[in-house]
Amino acid sequence: MSEILEKIAYCVEFGKINQQSPYPPDMKGQLGADELTKEALDTGLAPEDILKKGLVIGMERIGIKFRENKVFVPQVLMSAKAMSTAIEHLKPFFQSGDVKRSGIFIIGTVAGDLHDIGKNLVSMMVEGNGWEVVDLGTDVSADKFVNAIKDNPGSHVGLSALLTTTMINMEHILKEVKAASPETRVLIGGAPVSEDFKNKIGADFYSPDPQGAVEYLNSLVA
Ligand code: B1M
């Protein structure tokens, strides 16, 4: 990997947004993902390489550390912020088609449920790994998911739930999604959800953490 791509990956991994950012303290005053991404583009590096060999690598590293409980939610949020700041420089290339996203992922917290912290983490990690994410927010009905799939053909869907009283709504949403679009893969997650529950309702995949969701989605396009 070129030196600047490794530096970009490092900034995402450690949540260094830009030169002004005081976080992490041991990188104070150093360039962040923001400036380095711009510099990489200015020196002629391909936007796709900056995304896939720099930013995504950093996001993968933090995802694995989070799964292994080596870092916690605040560190992941800083990484996501570094990533999204850098992505701003790449947006024109997404729009022109010069950089291809891996696919489209529609995510939402299911009907009746307002918890969104875990869902947002999954959303940011998936986006940080090169997917376009359509985040429908919280308290999302089956109809809303189905309409979003119609607007985004070929997409896959993620359902999050934090309450034992709302996880049961996953079954209804899953049925409606599969009736409207049988080829759409539906993955589920959230604290009360389990592999057994996934088998019971017939979802395609259960992940206990954001990294598992990323790995599953990537396996669909490998
Ligand atoms: Co709520 N709440 N809450 N709450 N809340 C819990 C979930 C609860 C366990 C607390 C408790 O009683 N000990 C309990 C649920 C009990 C149960 O169902 N068995 C509970 C309750 C009862 C309630 C209310 C009913 C309380 C009331 O009003 N009486 C109410 C419900 C409102 C509603 O949704 N309709 C309520 C409200 C709230 C707040 C609004 C105050 C706030 C939410 C703020 C927000 O999200 N913006 C809140 C919070 C913060 C919590 C706790 C404290 C923390 C949840 C959280 O964000 N965890 C929680 C207790 C606890 O967990 N200690 C609690 C951190 C987050 C990173 O983890 O969401 O699990 P998590 O996501 C993980 C994984 O699960 C996974 O990845 C994430 C990162 O590892 N993951 C996925 C999540 N979604 C995924 C999707 C995937 C893959 C992985 O693929 C698609």
List keywords for this structure.
222 residues; alpha/beta; Methyltransferase, Methionine Synthase (B12-binding Domains), Chain A, domain 1; Rossmann fold; 5-stranded parallel sheet; 9% strand; binds CO-5-methoxybenzimidazolylcobamide
Describe this structure as you would to a colleague.
The protein folds into two domains: 3-96, Methionine synthase domain (Methyltransferase, Methionine Synthase (B12-binding Domains), Chain A, domain 1), CATH 1.10.1240; 104-221, Cobalamin-binding domain (Rossmann fold). 56% of the residues lie in helices and 9% in strands. It has ten helices and five strands. A five-stranded parallel beta sheet has the order 2-1-3-4-5, with helices on both faces. Strand 4 (186-189), helix 9 and strand 5 form a beta-alpha-beta unit. The radius of gyration is 18 Å and the shape is globular.
CATH superfamily of the largest domain: Cobalamin-binding domain
Helix content: 55-70%
**So, CATH architecture of the largest domain?**
3-Layer(aba) Sandwich
Count structural domains. Answer: 2
Q: Give the cofactors and ligands.
A: CO-5-methoxybenzimidazolylcobamide
Strand content: 5-15%
